[in-house]
Design brief:
Elements: H1 24-44, E1 53-59, E2 68-74, H2 112-132, H3 143-170, H4 172-184, H5 206-227, H6 233-270, H7 279-284, H8 290-305, H9 314-322, E3 343-350, E4 353-360, H10 365-390, H11 425-435, H12 439-448, E5 479-480
Antiparallel strand pairs: 1-2, 1-5, 3-4
Helix pairs in contact: 1-3, 1-4, 2-3, 2-4, 3-4, 3-6, 5-6, 5-8, 5-10, 6-10
The structure holds fe (ii) ion (2 copies).
């Protein structure tokens, strides 16, 4: 397939660049799934904002520049489409036992079950986050932020479409059933929860939202990066395009937390408060104290680490061997890409100390991806710390130790401090409130969050962004609440 066939067909009910008009079976499957999706969106998408006009980005192409256009759209009328990144001429499988073979355009029979599982797990996270975020509109700190959460939401919806496309096109009846199930599960539901823990947590306030987009969407980014390496080319092309949208979600998280921190520091300075632990004084000024932000970091980081699964994993080894899911930036790693006799140092508890132990690299795929994730997180944290120190306040946000507060993998049963000390369970419980958000913290977050809808105005607890979107000024009406 040549680079030329990337035009997006917007005349169809479902905008696409996958030749849907010529694939009657697939079109019928997607068209019969569509009404259920719209029902789901209206029921579980942004609560109370289905009729407002939102200044949204819609993907209209898949080339690097000029792939999106901005315009006012009512949320249920967003054009959710199926978009694949351009095919790479002559692409070959980059890793695993099929390394060097041409990529697959169809699902190899022997890997059908594995691939289906990968698609369903990825697909399940997309609608889950929309469900988690559905109440945020009513406490948006500005129209700009309100527009951003809705943008993230419609794109997560589109990512669900992306996975459903792959299921329906390549997995026949099984795929259609899975696509149906993706609309049935609900975040936090007792009977039919979403598949992964972090996607069943609540996102009750905007700091949680920014932490979620920073930490949990970043897990999503790492997963998509690994799938973009896939030897199953339709999956690679699908996820490569999803990553272009995902970059905005990271941006919302990084800048959202940064603006919160900057505002806290600014208000502290204006009021002559130097002690970051003067919690009551800081809170009385209507901003969020830095220790609360640290506890939120501890929580969101640790639940997001759980998403990487077991440190030593035969499933991950199987995905890698099969050529279905690679490592982060697989092609720029210098090794044999088959991991025959290579080792990778993974963190383990040995005689009460955390040390790096060499494991066969093939079994350490998850641990390695998680390490790459931590490095990616650290960049954002450094940026936050620069703004704290330039405000002259002595406080440093730190990522907790990887074994802190874990529910999955190697460290699940351990009671470890954020500094990485293994302590007794009762000692851990006694200090829990220093490390993880307390009922009091959450109450304060709840109390400061109130909706601000005057263009260019922001809630007290957060500062304005440095730049807006699409070269618009701060006074721009990013959401028109009244028709
Ligand atoms: Fe997504
Ligand atoms: Fe995302």
């Amino acid at each position: 397939m040549s680079q030329a066939i990337v035009e997006v067909d917007y005349d169809e009910l479902i905008p696409n660049n996958v030749g849907l008009a010529d694939d009657r079976r697939l079109r019928r499957a997607l068209e019969s799934w569509h009404p259920g999706y719209i029902d789901w969106w209206k029921q579980m998408g942004p609560n109370g904002f289905q009729d407002v006009d939102v200044y949204l980005r819609t993907a209209v192409g898949v080339s690097r520049d000029g792939w999106a256009k901005f315009d006012y759209v009512k949320l249920p009328e967003y054009r959710w489409g199926i978009l694949l990144a351009p095919a790479e001429e002559g692409r070959r499988i980059a890793f695993g036992r099929h390394k060097g073979e041409p990529v697959w355009q169809d699902v190899p029979g022997e890997y059908r079950a594995m691939l289906r599982r990968l698609l369903v797990v990825q697909g399940d996270t997309e609608p889950a986050s929309v469900e988690q975020q559905r109440h945020l509109g009513s406490t948006a700190p500005s129209l700009y932020d309100m527009r951003n959460v809705f943008q993230v939401n419609v794109e997560e919806g589109r990512h669900l479409w992306a996975m459903v496309y792959l299921l329906q096109k390549y997995f026949g009846r099984d795929g259609r059933e899975e696509a149906e199930m993706l609309l049935q599960r609900r975040s936090g539901d007792a009977d039919r929860p979403r598949m992964l823990g972090a996607f069943n947590e609540r996102t009750p306030d905007w700091l949680s939202f920014f932490m979620f987009t920073f930490f949990t969407d970043r897990d999503g980014k790492m997963q998509l990066e690994s799938l973009a390496q896939s030897g199953f080319d339709p999956l690679s092309r699908t996820t490569r395009f999803m990553l272009t949208e995902e970059a905005h979600h990271m941006f919302v998280g990084t800048t959202g937390v940064a603006r919160t921190i900057e505002q806290t520091c600014r208000v502290m300075r204006e009021n002559g408060i130097e002690d970051p632990y003067a919690t009551e004084k800081v809170r009385a000024l209507g901003v969020i104290d830095l220790p609360t932000i640290q506890r939120k970091v501890n929580f969101h980081f640790s639940v997001s680490l759980d998403l990487f699964g077991a440190d030593v994993s035969t499933n991950a080894a199987n995905y890698f061997n099969a050529g279905l899911k690679g490592r982060f930036r697989e092609t720029s790693i210098e090794d044999d890409h088959q991991l025959m006799d290579t080792t990778y140092p993974i963190t383990k508890l040995v005689n009460g100390d955390f040390v790096r132990v060499d494991e066969p690299a093939i079994n350490a795929i998850n641990a390695r991806l998680r390490d790459d994730y931590v490095v990616d997180c650290e960049k954002g944290v450094e940026r936050w710390n620069r703004s704290i120190s330039s405000a002259g306040i002595e406080f440093e946000i730190r990522l907790p130790h990887v074994a802190f507060n874990r529910k999955v993998g190697e460290f699940a049963q351990l009671t470890v401090t954020p500094d990485g000390a293994l302590i007794a369970d009762d000692a851990w419980q006694a200090q829990r409130d220093d490390w993880l958000p307390t009922a009091d913290d959450l109450q304060h977050l709840h109390d400061v969050m109130h909706q601000v809808v005057e263009p260019g105005e922001f809630a007290r607890w957060i500062g304005p962004p440095k730049t807006y979107i699409d070269n618009k000024p701060g006074s721009f009406e990013f959401v028109k609440l009244h028709g």
